[in-house]
Amino acid sequence: MDNQSLDNTDWSSDPDFIECVGDTSHALHLASGLNQLRQEGVFCDVTIIVNKQRFPVHKAVLSASSNFFMKVFASNGHSDSEVVVQGHAETFTKLLDFAYLGVLKLSQNTVCDIFRMACHTGFTEAVQLCAKYLVQKQQFINLEDTFKMLELAEGHEGLKDLKEAFSLRLLHNFNSFAETMCFLEQGTKEFLMNCLSAEEIEHDASDDEDDDDIFGEIETNGCKEEKILQATLNWLKYNWVERQCYAADLLKKIRLGWIPDNRLMPMLGDEVLAIPECKELVEELVKLHAKDSVSVPLIQSHPDMFATRNTITATLWSELDSAYLGFDDQDQTSFMYCHPSQPSQCYKLNKFAQIPNYEETAYIYSSNGQRMLVTEQGTLYVAGGIKVVQAGGTTFYFPKKDFFEYQSEPNEWIRRPEMLHDHFHPALVELDGYIYAIGGMRLDSILSNDVERFNLTSQTWEEVSPLIRKDWFYLSACVYNGYILAIGSSISECKSCTQVYNPNTNAWTVVLETTSTHGECDQQPQFIVHNRSCYYVCKRRCPSQSNTRVVVRSVIFNLESDNPSIILGNEVDLKLEWKDLVKSSVTFTFDKRKLGSSLA
Fold first, then answer.
1. What pLDDT does 394 receive?
2. Omega within 30 of 0 (cis) for the link into 410
3. Contacts (Cβ under 8 Å, ≥6 apart) of 245
4. Which domains are present in the chain?
5. Which of 77, 157, 418, 457 could lock onto 401 through a cystine, CB 3.0 to 4.6 A?
6. Using CA atoms, how far apart are residues 498 and 404, in angstroms rounded to an integer?
7. Is this structure's pTM higher than 0.85?
């Protein structure tokens, strides 16, 4: 029997036939063997040169990992023994390790370089892994690198999550990014046109604090559009000779109608007004201003000049008194927003999606529970809750494991995997791609020291080390320098306990216990991160007085030693109000047109 007939034989009919398949260790052994051959230079048939450093490799391995090298080696029966690649040798080493072993080592300091070279050299799987990492760590990527990575991603199919996340980040930080040299030098007309057309372009929520109706028809005022106009003019004039031809198209995307004439003209200057189309646009605007003040009919008749930017960025507060985003206390069916500057006025979001099973479950979004969290990517999560049961005239409360994610499109709550434990009023924080649910209460108001975390990538919960101390109510938590600080307090005894979690060692340490003295009591203390510094904040009550005063103290950390510790320093004056000290630094963006709003 010749070889061909032997290969075509159907051996499955043989009663002794069996097909043996090795386990995953075979693939690992093969990869390790090939990598060993590479390191020893055995059977290598091509040398890659990166920044004068030589890398003997196997064409077959690189071709299987990179479509770029596949095309290079396949072109005209490529027989060259050397290929030169632009980039850093250290970066290429990591891609080679990935090609041979399937392991890509990423960090905040290296991911941008690896992503860039992986894009240029066609390591598709490495590109996907880098993109996933960049989305998770986007808050640590500076705005200039965010733009550069977005430009690279635009040249690749897929990478939807990265494109959406980085585009939104640049929009939300447009004014800051516009101050960089990267914006002036590398920004393109297309990028700027997309930003100016977007509803999500940076909107300073602090500008809205004096508005009577937070979610009414908030008009984009001249001050905000002036910033956008100034950034656009800076970009144009940085390279006026080549960019002046874009001036008219860009100005049409800016809501110039909100900028008073006496400020608009000096901003534009003679160079811009010398362009006929720009001059015509401004002259039309001046005529409109002369005939009518800014009004609804004017907005409707000239939306290109007066259209409002319809996305409202609402700060989610962790206000200890009355400001919150949560269900209406009366009907338990609608989300409410109470603004800290006007705590007596709550605004009902009429069309905000209801959490499933709201009829039988109470979700109380008080700040003490901190059971609501917005991730760095702007996603809103809700965890825990209690099921209320009436029986025999008695009300029973049963903590729940619920975990929901809100999706603005199509405005609904998505049930995510349940937590491993029942939690009522757990503290929620996000760190390194995980959402941590810390402590809270179990059945019958029994305090819990359970801690678990949700992997945002794999969408699974896992146990982590429990709190050492659990005998504290009013638990709150924050993240500082890669550690989790959890502080619990007891108002009746005026005591507090601070524990620190190190994710690298999966261990909690009690670092500080305090007892109020001199008859004063620190109520509901928190650690607040403000301008990259951490402060101890509380309301201090004196028994002889009915009022309280805000206390802010500096904090001295020693977290990286074998015996971590925290020392509370002197009181400091940050010249901020209580609401400014205790608000979260994240924002949640939604469209007021779709959710509706009314004063409750």
1. 78
2. yes
3. none
4. 27-168 (3.30.710.10), 193-309 (no CATH), 312-595 (2.120.10)
5. 418
6. 29
7. no
